[in-house]
Amino acid sequence: MAFELRHIRYVIAAAEQHSFRRAANVVGVHQSAISRRIRDLEDELGASLFNRHSGGVELTIAGQNFLEHAKRAMGQIECGATLVNAHGCGIAGIIRIGIFSSLSSGFIADLLHAYEHRHADVQLDFIEGAPCEHLSAIRQYKLDIAFLTGPTFPPDCEGQHLWTERVYVVLPEADELAGRTEIAWDDLRHRHFIVSRTDPGPEIHDFLIKHLARLGYHPSVEYCAVGRDNLMQLVSLGKGLTLTSEATTGTTFPRVVYRLLAGEELPFCAIWLPKNDNPALRRLLSLARVMARRNGLCNSTAKSLIATPPASKTH
């Protein structure tokens, strides 16, 4: 039916005030506007909502039924408007986050704890996956942001280097290298490595091949069809060594130790779509930049470098 929200507000005000004149004062319009719009509404509905008399107005039975539902509808609309306003201010809503690093410790853990403390009403949804999957999801607005390794960003996305993590060798506690505080690439020249077939296994595989091949040695790297936890168990059994980033060392495993790989660091970046207008995302990015600047790891403006998105690997 062709009536507006203001007509419903006029009915509610007139019912509460028992007078078109007093209702007009409450709403802030002329009495004639109240009377005329309610009469239009009654004509549209095909029934009188009010009985008019010299002392004011009273609801008819039809008017009482209409008022009950009208108040409920207006309450829902006002509730919806309040929620939309909260989303627009970034104090409520949802952020869908793609992760490629551990949440147990490090910069990303500190960032998310700080954000949740400031914006408790914003829901954070986490999705694990490969970089190529996250980039595709960002382009389709299925993710708001992804935290990935690498110094460059796809040309259609924005990104910012936020933090750097050191690289650690994972080895059995009985290994001869376990007594050292740091391990050099030369120490790993003839060692056997194991990596998971799932991410970040392929990235670790490429990292090992790149660095060990520089030493003139063909690396021995074996793919295992297990997740990270079982991969660590295989390391403890002496099946091979592996690598991990600094944030993951917050989780310990029996008979497994972490030793720093000298001189190696991994850059971690935030990637997002410039057209994504999620206000909650913008607040997260603002906080991330502030925290990164405190650590001396963030430029004053976001970098946008032309690079080819990581290709999907099949092994």
> What portion of residues belong to β-strands?
15-25%
The coarse overall form would be: rod-shaped
Question: What is the name of the CATH topology of the largest domain?
Answer: D-Maltodextrin-Binding Protein, domain 2
Amount of helix? 25-40%
Round the Cα radius of gyration to an integer and report it: 31 Å
Name of the CATH first level of the largest domain: Alpha Beta
Classify the secondary structure makeup into a structural class: alpha/beta
CATH architecture of the largest domain: 3-Layer(aba) Sandwich
- Biggest sheet details: 7 strands, mixed
Tell me the number of structural domains.
3
Let me know the number of strands: 11
Mean pLDDT: 84
At the fourth level of CATH, the homologous superfamily of the largest domain is Periplasmic binding protein-like II
In whole angstroms, the N-to-C terminal distance is 62 Å
The count of helical stretches stands at: 9
- Unreliable spans: 298-315
Order of helices and strands: HHHEEHEHEHEEEEHEHEEH
Short recap of the structure:
This protein has 315 residues and is an alpha/beta fold. It has nine helices and eleven strands. Strands 3, 4, 5, 6, 7, 10 and 11 form a seven-stranded mixed beta sheet that branches.
